[in-house]
Predict the 3D structure of the following.
Amino acid sequence: MARSALTAKERIRFARQLKNLPGFSTRCQQALKEARVLVVGLGGVGSPCALYLASAGVGTLGLADPDKVELSNLQRQILHGTPELGNPKTDSARRALKRLNPATKLQLYPQGLEPKSARAIVKRFDLVADCSDNFSTRFLANDTAFLEGKALAHAGVAAYQCQLFLTDPAEQKSPCLRCVMPEVPRPGKKQAGILPPVCGIAGSLLALMIIKHLCALGERQTGKLFHFDAEKMAFRALKIARDCHCPLCGSSPTITQLCARNYPKK
């Protein structure tokens, strides 16, 4: 299918990345325009991630989150504002993103990501942005993306730290989340505190990682676990190899379909 040409308004809107940005071209902007990204979780990480994907020109965003906006969310979830209290996060996000870039096509999934419908949803997109805040959804997103042959970019935050990870089944040696943690960890008794700007850093880096992947810019990021420590203001990258014994992407996988019992509710 032929790529749709950029409009005059799009060339003005995205001028600062189309002009004089090394490595970025009209081809990259068209790739973003045609891209379809599913954002799972519209909280502290999903907020800046979705905002930057829309502002950069990603053509279609899926928004999946079953929660409603609460007062305690507003400390870090910058997609939402005080007037949105009590409203579904998908509706709040839709209004914010449309104000930012009316041309962005939005598909809402207010039920969130569930085992019974996850594959049907994920197959409609090119990439899954996992911004969820619990292990069950995180592993469900990972498993679904792999089974549907879709790339997945993950970011998680706790206290002063965040981590990022990109996996792509199209790359033969690309590890998945289960290569790092084979089983879904049990939830802790209490949630870790979060410093708001750390969420912003995680979401911004996740959007950057996704844009680079969609545009094939710079070095490939698969096979690396990125970690940022806000207390030390330090980044580090750890190389992760695919585990041949991984229950999902290993040589003899045991996870070949989605079963609800494998993703207990938080």
Summary: The beta strands are 36-40, 60-64, 105-109, 127-130, 151-158, 161-167, 224-229, 234-239. The chain has one domain: 8-262.
